[in-house]
Every structure is written in C-alpha cells, then in structure tokens.
Amino acid sequence: MRQLAHLNDEVEGWHKLQARLNDALELLELDDPDLAADLETEVAAIEREVEQREFTAMLSGEYDRGNALLAIHAGAGGTDSQDWAEMLLRMYLRWAERQGFETEILDTTPGEEAGIKSVTVAVNGRYAYGYLRAEKGVHRLVRISPFDASNRRHTSFALVEVLPQVEQDVAIEINPNDLRIDVFKSAGAGGQNVQKNATAVRITHLPTGIVATCQNERSQAQNRETAMKVLRARLLAIKEQEKAEKINELRGEYTKAEWGSQIRSYVLHPYKMVKDHRTGYEVGNAEAVLDGDLNGFIQAYLRANVGAT
Questions:
Q1: N or C terminus of the chain with fewer C-beta within 10 Å?
Q2: Helix (H) and strand (E) counts for the chain?
Q3: What confidence category does residue 257 fall into, taking pLDDT thresholds of 50, 70 and 90?
Q4: How many other C-beta atoms can be found within 10 angstroms of the C-beta atom of residue 70?
Q5: In DSSP terms, which residues pair with 105 in a beta bridge?
Q6: How far is CA 271 from the centre of its chain?
C-alpha cells in the first residue's frame, strides 16, 4: 500500500505539472504585456520543478525511495577523528533538516576527550536512502588541530555507512537461535528513568559477528525492535555486497575496498576546499558544506552513476 501511495503521488505530481505547463502556454498565447512578469515567474518555477523531477528520476534503486540508517565511525587520528565524526554528524543532521527529513539518534559512543567514536542515526523521509547512499565511504579532514598545543596540521578520517531501513517482509532470514541479546543500562541522555532501568539492548548475530545496539528509547521492547531493524539493514548490506562482488568477479572487475581510499576531502588549512574524489566536484566554501550544503555533491555523484544501481 505504501508503494502504491508513492506511485499515485508521483503520477499526480506529473499531472499537476502538465496542467501548469498548459496554463502557462495559454498565458503566452494571450500575448498580454501585463501578464509578462507573472508568466516569467511561472516558467522559472516550472523549470525548477522539472529539474528536481529529473534529479529524482535518477533515484531508481530498489531502496532509494525509503528511509535510511546513517552510521559514522571515527577512524585514524585519535581525538581529532572523534571530533571529526561529531562534525560530520552535525553536518548530516543539518542537511536532513534542510531536506525536511526526520532524524533520530539511535546509539552513540562518546569519545574519551571530545567528539564521538560512533553514532547511528535513523533518517526518515522520502528518498532519504537514495540521497544518502552518495555519502557512504571514508571522509578526510585536513585542519589545524584544536587539540594540538603546537598548532600543527592534522589529517583525520571517519567512515560513513549508509544502509536502507528494511521492512520485516524483506527476504532477510534471521534465526532466533543465532542471536545473543544483552540488556544493560543506557549510557545516553534521556532522564533518570532511562538511567535507572536496563532498557538498552545489544543484539549480536553470532554467525557474522554483527552487533546492533539501541539505547535511545525508554522501553526495552522499543530498543529491541530498533536494534533488530539495524541488524536487518546490516545483513541486507552484506547480502547486496556479496551479490555485487560476484557480478564484478564474473566481469573481471572486482577490486577490494580499502579503508584508506577516501571519497571526499575537507581541507580547512592552508586553504579551504571540499572536493569529492569520485566526481571531481569541489567547492571553496567549506563552512557552508559543514553546515549541511551537500546537495551539489550528492547530485554530482548520482549524475555520474545513473544506471549503476
């Protein structure tokens, strides 16, 4: 029913656009100078909508229309990388707010001195996964470290994972006997009730070693349900990766993914620039990017990969 509703919305949107175009053509045929300004405004609006629809037409992957799970992990670089992971979290939360998406932090591991070691965020909204899949990979930061008394330049790394939120009816079989479920007290914010009771849940999938944790909700049942959602997403990612690797092996194109191959560099010193190494797209306003201005990078990636999903 959700899929049908999405398709109905899309068809209705095209019909409305066609009606607006017909109305604009009728205004043009009137050749009335008093309507010229209104016509120009309407044409510009139609062009913007066509451009947006052209862009969303590229989001044709199996899970592109759905919600996403975003995970950020600090990499090499110690405290600087943990701070960088928190900067990325802020960037993506601001981007999601601009897009009108809802976000919920499911699990956070704070850093020892600053920042975070890892975080998992649910991003809910139409095409959330389709947009965010452009962001998966290693992100590199170059800056003068605020944690270095000598003010030296440091390079930090963080890994961004993006997974589709999969429904229970997706073909991911999980044997209950393969799960170890641990319950513990939440270490995160949420009030005294969360702190007193053992509501946080950690689920370990024994055959793969995958661990899914949730401590955001006040009830153990809610945390367990969310942790299972994260586990299903990670198992689906393994399944899809195995399928892709098999296809690449048959094509003779398989290359192993390595941690060090960053997809994007954010340089704050000695100059300011953000560059995506996959597409060559770059901007000089690094502050705007870190404030959530990511659509240029996302669009460049999707345009470069039309038909690849």
A1: N
A2: 8, 11
A3: very low
A4: 26
A5: 121
A6: 27
